[in-house]
C-alpha cells in the first residue's frame, strides 16, 4: 500500500519491503550480483597485462649457434670432385665427411637435426635450381647413422612448396631415406626476435627453432642482385613473412640471417651449377655439370669457394666483403681437396 | 528409422534445455513412421537408397578434396597428373553433355559418361536424382533431419504435386536454347556445377576457417586435454579440408546461395530438385520411356497419406491422383510406408493411374523458348570478346592457360570452379562482371593472389568440358620454335616501381620471372639521389616477346596493395583481337 508523499512532508517515509520478496530470493539476487561482479572483475584481472609497457614484445634475440664444440674452425673447407659427374654426389659427401672427422663431429646421438636444402622453385633436378636430391638423401642416411633421433628436411619455397619438393625430387628422396619432410604451412612459423639490424621480429620456421643441429645444403646459382646464391642466401629459406622486402637491402639481410643462424655444417652442392637466369633458371643450357661438393662450417668460405664457378671473385661480392671477418673468412687459406 | 528417431530425441532434449519442459507433441500432429509398411522389399530398397546416397556424396566429396596438386607422398616426382578422375560427377552429368554438344557440335572427352546416366534414366526413370545426385543427397539429409519439427499436416500437404514444379522444364527449355546459341549459362543452374563451386570455393574454405579458429582457441586455453584435442584436430584438418587456406573473390555469394537452397528444404522439401533443377527436368523428360514405374492399387488405398510423409519428388504416390512419373525420384519411401500394400514399383506397370507428360502449357513453353532466344543476343550487345569484332570487356580478364578464344570458351565453360579448386597457387578466381554478365563466375587469373606456374597444366586437366585445353608442359612453355602459351603481358607502373621512382634496389620481379631467358631484363644505371650522391641501380624492363603473362612478377612485387608491375590480357595468345605487337 503506497501513496504519493505529500509535497510538504520533509523526508519520504522509508518504503516497506515489497511484499513478494522472500529471504531466499533476496540472497539469491545478491549472490547472482556477486557472481557477476566477480566474473567481470576476474576476467579483467586475468587479461590485464601488468608488465611495463616498454617490456611488451621486447624479448632477447633468439640467435642460434648450432656448431658443436668439436667443429672445425672458420675458413676450413674440404672439397672433392666426382669422377662421374652429378651422379657422384652421395660418394663425395661420404668421402668428405670421413676426411672431416665423420658426421659424429657435427651431429650427436639423440639429437634432432634439420637438413635445410634450397628447394625454392618448381623446377626439376636437371634444371639446377634446387639442391641435388641424392645429396640430401645421403645426408639423411649419414645423420641417422650418426644416431640422430629425428631428421627433418624442410625449406620455405618461393613457388608452391608441394610442387617444388615434388618436382625437384628432394621430397621423395628425403622421405625414402627416412627423413620427415615438412612443407611449411602458416602455422609452422613463430615470430621471434632475430636480433638483426633489418630482421628484428620476423616469422621463423618452427622446426629450425626447435632443432639441435642444422645442416645447410645450398646449391650454387647465379643471382642478379647479389651475384650469386649459396650458403648465406640459403638462409632466406628459414624465414617466412614479407621476404620480398629484403631485396631492398639484401646484403644487410644476409648478414642478419648469418648472425641469427650458424649452421652445424654447410654442404655446398656444386654438382650442377646454374650459370645464368638464376635463381630459377629453366633451361638446360644455363646449367654446367661441375661435379663438385664442399663441406665446411663457414658459410662465407663456402660462398667464396663457390663464386669462381660463376666467374665471380669473392672480394667483388659485396655481401661476402661485409661478412668476411664477421661470419667467417673468404680468403680460402685452409681449403683442401680430398682426392 | 531408429537413427532418425534418436537424433530427433536428442535434438528435442537440447531444445528443452533451460529447465523448461517442452510440451509433448500433439499426437494428432505426430508424424507416422514411414518404415512400417507391409512391403519388405520397399523398406529394404528405401534403406539401401539412403546408404547409396551417403556413399555417393562421400565419393563426390573425396574427389573434390583430391582436386589438388599431387605431391611426392604418392611416390612420384611428377606434380602433374591427378590420381583420381576428379571431374567424374561433372563428366557424368548429362545436362552438361547435352548443352555443350548443342553449343559446340561435339561431346568432349569424359562427358561421354553422361550417357550412362541418360541410359539409366531411359530404363528406370530419375534414379539419379533419388540415389546418386550429391546435391540431392544433401537436401534429402537436411529434410530428413528437420522433418520431425513440422506439423504432420504441413509435411504431407507440402509433398503433394504442385504446378510450380513445371518451372524447371521451362528453365531447361530456355537454357537449352541459350546453349544452341552458343553459351553455357546452363552452368549457373546445373546442380553438379553448383555444388562443386559452392563447396570448393566457399563452404569448405569457411569450414576450414572455422576449424582453424577453433583449434587456435583450444591451443590458447593452455589446458592439457584441450591442447591434445587441438593437436588431433590439426592432424586431421588438412585431410578433410583444403590443405592451404583459400579465399576466392566473392566466394561468399556461392556460400549464401548454397545455404539458402539447402536451408529452404526445411519448409519446402527438395525445393531445388522439384522446382528449379534443369538436370532433373532433363532426366524427367527422359524418364518417359522407362520400364520401371509405380503401380497403385486404388482399391486398397485408405488415404492414410503415409506415402506422402517422406516423398521426395512430390509426384503424388497417394491414391486419388495420377502419379507424375517425370517427378518421381525413385526414393521408394512411398512403397516402404504404405501399410495396405497398395503401392509397388514394378516393371511395365499399368499406366491407368500414371501421368507421363510434364503438364506443360504451350504458351509458357513458347515463352521460355523465346526468352532463351533473346537472352544471348541481349547479353552480347555489350562489350566483350565473344561477339564479332569484340573488344575486351575488362583488361584484367586474364584467362587460364589453354583457354579457348572467348566465344568458344563461353560455349564450353560451365562455371564449375574445378580449375579454381585445383590451381596450386590459388591464382584462378570467379569473375563477377569482368567477362560481362554472360561470363559470370568463369575463371580469371588474379596475379596479386597467385601466378601461373609454367610447368603446371592442372586446370586443363580437370576442366570437364574443354573450355581450357589440356596442354602438355612442352606446349605450354614453348618448344621446337613454337611460342609459349601467353596469357597476357606485364606492364610496369614506373611511378610505383622502387628502382624507377624511388632510388631503391629491388628487382624481386626479375628474380621471379620464370622464362628463359627472363622476360624481365635489367638496365644498370647510376643516378644521383636527392643529395646529389650517385647510386647504382638495376632498373627492370619487360621484353614483350618473352613475357608469358604468368603474373609471377605481379605476385612477388613488394608493393602490396597494387603492384608496380601488373599483367593485363594484352597479347594473350588465344585472341588475335588482343595482339599488340606486329611481329613476335
Short description:
The complex is a heterodimer of chains A (339) and B (584). By secondary structure, chain A is of the alpha/beta class.
Spatial arrangement of strands, main beta sheet of chain B:
1-3
Count of DSSP-assigned helices of chain A: 9
- Find the count of extended strands of chain B (DSSP E, 2+ residues): 10
The number of distinct helices of chain B, counting runs of at least 4 residues, comes to 25
Question: What is the number of beta strands of chain A?
Answer: 14
Strand composition percent of chain A: 15-25%
Strand content of chain B: 5-15%
Helix content of chain A: 25-40%
Main sheet specs of chain A: 10 strands, mixed
Structural class of the helix and strand makeup of chain B?
Answer: mainly alpha
Helix content of chain B: 40-55%
Average pLDDT reading of chain A: 92
Given the C-alpha coordinates, what overall shape of chain A results?
A: elongated
Largest sheet of chain B: 2 strands, antiparallel
Cα Rg of chain A: 30 Å
| SS-based class of chain A | alpha/beta
Low-pLDDT residue spans of chain B: 18-28
Please state the CA-atom Rg of chain B, rounded to the nearest Å. 28 Å
Query: What is the rounded distance between the termini of chain A?
Result: 112 Å
Order of H and E elements of chain A: HEEHEHEHHEEEHEEEHEEEHHE
Amino acid at each position: 500500500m503506497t501513496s504519493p508523499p505529500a509535497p510538504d512532508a520533509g523526508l519520504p517515509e522509508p518504503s516497506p519491503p515489497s511484499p513478494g520478496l522472500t529471504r531466499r530470493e533476496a540472497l539469491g539476487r545478491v549472490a547472482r550480483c556477486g557472481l557477476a561482479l566477480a566474473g567481470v572483475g576476474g576476467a579483467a584481472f586475468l587479461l590485464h597485462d601488468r608488465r611495463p609497457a616498454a617490456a611488451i614484445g621486447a624479448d632477447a634475440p633468439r640467435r642460434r649457434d648450432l656448431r658443436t664444440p668439436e667443429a672445425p674452425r672458420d675458413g676450413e673447407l674440404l672439397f672433392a670432385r666426382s669422377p662421374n659427374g652429378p651422379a657422384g654426389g652421395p660418394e663425395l659427401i661420404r668421402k668428405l665427411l670421413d676426411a672431416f672427422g665423420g658426421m659424429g663431429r657435427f651431429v650427436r646421438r639423440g639429437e634432432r637435426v634439420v637438413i635445410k636444402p634450397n628447394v625454392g622453385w618448381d623446377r626439376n633436378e636437371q634444371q639446377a635450381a634446387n639442391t641435388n636430391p641424392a645429396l640430401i638423401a645421403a645426408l639423411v642416411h649419414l645423420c641417422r647413422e650418426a644416431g640422430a633421433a629425428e631428421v627433418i628436411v624442410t625449406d620455405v619455397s618461393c613457388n608452391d612448396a608441394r610442387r617444388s619438393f615434388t618436382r625437384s625430387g628432394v621430397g621423395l628422396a628425403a622421405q625414402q631415406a627416412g627423413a620427415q619432410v615438412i612443407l611449411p604451412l602458416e602455422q609452422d612459423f613463430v615470430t621471434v626476435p632475430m636480433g638483426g639490424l633489418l630482421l628484428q621480429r620476423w616469422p621463423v620456421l618452427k622446426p629450425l627453432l626447435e632443432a639441435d643441429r642444422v645442416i645447410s645444403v645450398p646449391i650454387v646459382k647465379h643471382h642478379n642482385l647479389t651475384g650469386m646464391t649459396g650458403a648465406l642466401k640459403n638462409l632466406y629459406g628459414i624465414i617466412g613473412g614479407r621476404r620480398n622486402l629484403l631485396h631492398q637491402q639484401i646484403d644487410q639481410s644476409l648478414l642478419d640471417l648469418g648472425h641469427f643462424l650458424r649452421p652445424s655444417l654447410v654442404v655446398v652442392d656444386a654438382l650442377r651449377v646454374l650459370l645464368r637466369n638464376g635463381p630459377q633458371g629453366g633451361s638446360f643450357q644455363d646449367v654446367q655439370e661441375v661435379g663438385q661438393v664442399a663441406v665446411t662450417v663457414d658459410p662465407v668460405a663456402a660462398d667464396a669457394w663457390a663464386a669462381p664457378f660463376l666467374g665471380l671473385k669473392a672480394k667483388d661480392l659485396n655481401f661476402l666483403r661485409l661478412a668476411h671477418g664477421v661470419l667467417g673468412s673468404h680468403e680460402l687459406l685452409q681449403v683442401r681437396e680430398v682426392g | 528409422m531408429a537413427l532418425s528417431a534418436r537424433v530427433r530425441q536428442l535434438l528435442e532434449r537440447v531444445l528443452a534445455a533451460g529447465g523448461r519442459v517442452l510440451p509433448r507433441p500433439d499426437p494428432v500432429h505426430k508424424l507416422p513412421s514411414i518404415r512400417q509398411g507391409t512391403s519388405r522389399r520397399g523398406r529394404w530398397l528405401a534403406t539401401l537408397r539412403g546408404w547409396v546416397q551417403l556413399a555417393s556424396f562421400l565419393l563426390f566429396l573425396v574427389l573434390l578434396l583430391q582436386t589438388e596438386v599431387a605431391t611426392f607422398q604418392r611416390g612420384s616426382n611428377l606434380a602433374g597428373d591427378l590420381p583420381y578422375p576428379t571431374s567424374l560427377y561433372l563428366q557424368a552429368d548429362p545436362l552438361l553433355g547435352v548443352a555443350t554438344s548443342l553449343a559446340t557440335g561435339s561431346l568432349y572427352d569424359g562427358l561421354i559418361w553422361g550417357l550412362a546416366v541418360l541410359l539409366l534414366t531411359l530404363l528406370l526413370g530419375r534414379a539419379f536424382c533419388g540415389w546418386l545426385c550429391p546435391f540431392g543427397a544433401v537436401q534429402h539429409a537436411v529434410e530428413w533431419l528437420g522433418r520431425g519439427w513440422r506439423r504432420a499436416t504441413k509435411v504431407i500437404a507440402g509433398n503433394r504435386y504442385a504446378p510450380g514444379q513445371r518451372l524447371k522444364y521451362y528453365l531447361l527449355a530456355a537454357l537449352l536454347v541459350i546453349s544452341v546459341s552458343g553459351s553455357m549459362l546452363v552452368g549457373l543452374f546445373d546442380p553438379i556445377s553448383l555444388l562443386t563451386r559452392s563447396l570448393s570455393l566457399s563452404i569448405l574454405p569457411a569450414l576450414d576457417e572455422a576449424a582453424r579458429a577453433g583449434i587456435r582457441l583450444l591451443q590458447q586455453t593452455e589446458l592439457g586435454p584441450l591442447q591434445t584435442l587441438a593437436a588431433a584436430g590439426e592432424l586431421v584438418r588438412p585431410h578433410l579440408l583444403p590443405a592451404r587456406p583459400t579465399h576466392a573473390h566473392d566466394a561468399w555469394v556461392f556460400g549464401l546461395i548454397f545455404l539458402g537452397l539447402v536451408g529452404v528444404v526445411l519448409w519446402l522439401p527438395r525445393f531445388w530438385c522439384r522446382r528449379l533443377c534443369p538436370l532433373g527436368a532433363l532426366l524427367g523428360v527422359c524418364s518417359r520411356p522407362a520400364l520401371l514405374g509405380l503401380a497403385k492399387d486404388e482399391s486398397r488405398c485408405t488415404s492414410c497419406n503415409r506415402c506422402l510423409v517422406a516423398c521426395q519428388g512430390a509426384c503424388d504416390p497417394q491414391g486419388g491422383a495420377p502419379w507424375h512419373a517425370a517427378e518421381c525420384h525413385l526414393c521408394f519411401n512411398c512403397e516402404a510406408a504404405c501399410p495396405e500394400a497398395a503401392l509397388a514399383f514394378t516393371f511395365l506397370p499399368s499406366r491407368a493411374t500414371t501421368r507421363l507428360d510434364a503438364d506443360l502449357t504451350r504458351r509458357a513453353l513458347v515463352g521460355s523458348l523465346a526468352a532463351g532466344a533473346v537472352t544471348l543476343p541481349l547479353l552480347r550487345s555489350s562489350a566483350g570478346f565473344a561477339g564479332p569484332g569484340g573488344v575486351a570487356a575488362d583488361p584484367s580478364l586474364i584467362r587460364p592457360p589453354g583457354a579457348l578464344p572467348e566465344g568458344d570458351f563461353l560455349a564450353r565453360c560451365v562455371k564449375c570452379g574445378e580449375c579454381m579448386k585445383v590451381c596450386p597457387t590459388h591464382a584462378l578466381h570467379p569473375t563477377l562482371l569482368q567477362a560481362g554478365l554472360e561470363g559470370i563466375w568463369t575463371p580469371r587469373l588474379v596475379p596479386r593472389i597467385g601466378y601461373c606456374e609454367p610447368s603446371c597444366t592442372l586446370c586443363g586437366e580437370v576442366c570437364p568440358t574443354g573450355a581450357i585445353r589440356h596442354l602438355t608442359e612442352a606446349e605450354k612453355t614453348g618448344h621446337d620454335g613454337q611460342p609459349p602459351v601467353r596469357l597476357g603481358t606485364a606492364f610496369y607502373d614506373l611511378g610505383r616501381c622502387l628502382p624507377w621512382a624511388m632510388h631503391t634496389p629491388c628487382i624481386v620481379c626479375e628474380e621471379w620471372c620464370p622464362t628463359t631467358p627472363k622476360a624481365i631484363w635489367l638496365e644498370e644505371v647510376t643516378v644521383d639521389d636527392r643529395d646529389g650522391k650517385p647510386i647504382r641501380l638495376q632498373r627492370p624492363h619487360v621484353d614483350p616477346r618473352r613475357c608469358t603473362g604468368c603474373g609471377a612478377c605481379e605476385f612477388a612485387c613488394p608493393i602490396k596493395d597494387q603492384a608496380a608491375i601488373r599483367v593485363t590480357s594484352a597479347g594473350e595468345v588465344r585472341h588475335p583481337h588482343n595482339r599488340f605487337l606486329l611481329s613476335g
